[in-house]
Design a protein that fits this description.
The protein has helices at residues 4-11, 26-37, 56-63, 87-90, 95-104, 109-126, 133-157, 170-179, 211-214, and strands spanning 48-52, 78-85, 161-165, 188-197. By secondary structure, it is an alpha+beta fold. It has one domain: NADH Oxidase (3-Layer(aba) Sandwich). The longest helix has 25 residues, at 133-157. It starts with a helix and ends with a helix. The relative contact order is 0.22.
Amino acid sequence: MENKFLDAMMFRHACKEFDDSKKISENDFNNILEIGRLSPSSFGFEPWKFLVIQNKNLRDKLKEFTWGAQGTLPTASHYVIILARKKSSMIYNSEYIDHVMKDTHKLPQDAIEMRRGFYEKFQKEDFNLLQNDRAMFDWASKQTYIAMANMMSGAAYMGIDSCPIEGFDAKKAEEFLKNELKIDTNEFGLSVMVAFGYRKNEQKEKTRQSLSEIVINY
């Protein structure tokens, strides 16, 4: 039986250069963003923000310190910076966590206090996330990769190419967020970037290890 999702995974590759004459429709790109929005996160606290960078001047400035996107920044139909929340808003007693439980999850107060207790124990004991600010940011960043992977897979299902990008100078990225995009860098940090568009060149044959090399059955 044909598996359209597996076909999409075979189609997907890290597209290093796009055909800049082809643009993703507004409807298709909104669907990609919606796939990101609907992605799972720990406790359902959605520690992400998606910045869509279409302004050429901003892309040119990004290109100066994003060595992993030299071919994609100038040619991508759409370019997304994914932010992860830092300790100030992800800690168990923050205003942001209260807001999500109350206004997004619409939990009654007793359920809020019970979930906060589980979350506090998780952060303090289970994952030891309060040891330093980087531990909390890295934990939040791991979750943003779930959203990004879903967005790329969803795009592939629609016949749209993508490229995940980690190749950037983190310090300069923080300055860019603060000075150019007016992001509160005490609350957010740059986790990863992803470019979307349509391939300029045919992809090479996909290569992966076999299932027998990566799967252990017990």
